[in-house]
Amino acid sequence: MTDSGKANDLLSQIPKGEGKGLPPVHLWNPDFCGDIDMRIARDGTWFYMGTPIGRKPMVKLFSTIIRRDGDDYVLVTPVEKVGIRVDVAPFVAIALAVEGEGEAQVLRFTNNVDDEIVAGAEYPIRVELDPQTQEPTPFVRVRTNLDALIHRNVFYQLVELAVPRDIDGQSWLGVWSSGQFFPIAPQPD
C-alpha cells in the first residue's frame, strides 16, 4: 500500500467518539505496519510526504492517536500502528495564561492543537540544556510520555515569572504552578 493509502486507511480507523476525551491509545496494541512518510517539525507543523498538512482539523485528529513507545513515535488505532518522525516534540505550547501568584500560581498552557494543559505534578515543566551551547529547551508534559516544546515567546513569559528557590543547596530560578515548583535555570552568581 502506498503512503497515501496508509494515511487514509489510518484516518478511517480512528473511532468516532462523542467528543468525550482522547481515544484510549494506551490500550491498543495492534501489529506494527511500518513507517509512513509523516513528520512533525520543531515548530509543530505536520508534514505528509514532504508537504505540510494545511487542514488543522486533520492535524488535530492525527494528534489524538499519537503515542510514544520508547524512543519511537507512532500513530495507533485499534487495528494498525505506524511509525512517524518527530523532530523535537509532537506539540508546541504557543500560549500561556497565568492565574494567581506565588505558590498559589497556576500556569495554563495552550498548544498548537488547542489542548489546554495546567502545569503541575501530572503535567510538569522541564528544561533541557544543550551540553555545548547551554541553550535551554523547555517542555511541558501534555499526555502520558508526550511533551510540548514551549515556544520561545512563552518561555520568555516563564522567565519573567521566575523566582529564586534553594534546591539541595543550589539556588535556582523557577516557576510555581498548582503547588509545584519547576526549576528552569540555575540562579546566576
How are the SSEs placed, and which strands pair?
Blueprint: H1 3-12, E1 32-40, E2 46-48, E3 51-52, H2 56-63, E4 66-69, E5 72-76, E6 81-86, E7 91-99, E8 106-111, E9 116-118, E10 125-129, E11 136-143, E12 146-150, H3 152-161, E13 163-167, E14 170-177, E15 180-186
Parallel strand pairs: 1-6, 7-12
Antiparallel strand pairs: 1-2, 2-3, 4-5, 5-6, 7-8, 8-9, 10-11, 11-12, 13-14, 14-15
Tell me what you see in this structure.
The model has no long low-confidence stretch (mean pLDDT 90). The radius of gyration is 18 Å and the shape is elongated. The chain has a six-stranded mixed beta sheet with strand order 3-2-1-6-5-4. The chain has a six-stranded mixed beta sheet with strand order 9-8-7-12-11-10. A three-stranded antiparallel beta sheet has the order 13-14-15, covered by helices on one side. It is built from three helices and 15 strands. It starts with a helix and ends with a strand. The chain has 189 residues and is mostly beta strands. It has two domains: 84 residues, duf1285 like fold; 96 residues, Roll (duf1285 protein fold), CATH 2.30.270.10.
CATH superfamily membership of the largest domain: duf1285 protein
How would you describe the shape? elongated
Task: Report the structural category.
Answer: mainly beta
Whole-number count of domains: 2
Please give the largest β-sheet.
6 strands, mixed
Total beta strands: 15
Instruction: Specify the oligomeric state.
Output: single chain
Order of helices and strands: HEEEHEEEEEEEEEHEEE
Helix proportion range: 10-25%
Q: Separation of termini?
A: 59 Å
In the sheet with the most strands, the strands line up as 3-2-1-6-5-4
Stated plainly, the CATH topology of the largest domain is called duf1285 protein fold
CATH architecture of the largest domain: Roll
CATH class of the largest domain: Mainly Beta
Number of helices: 3
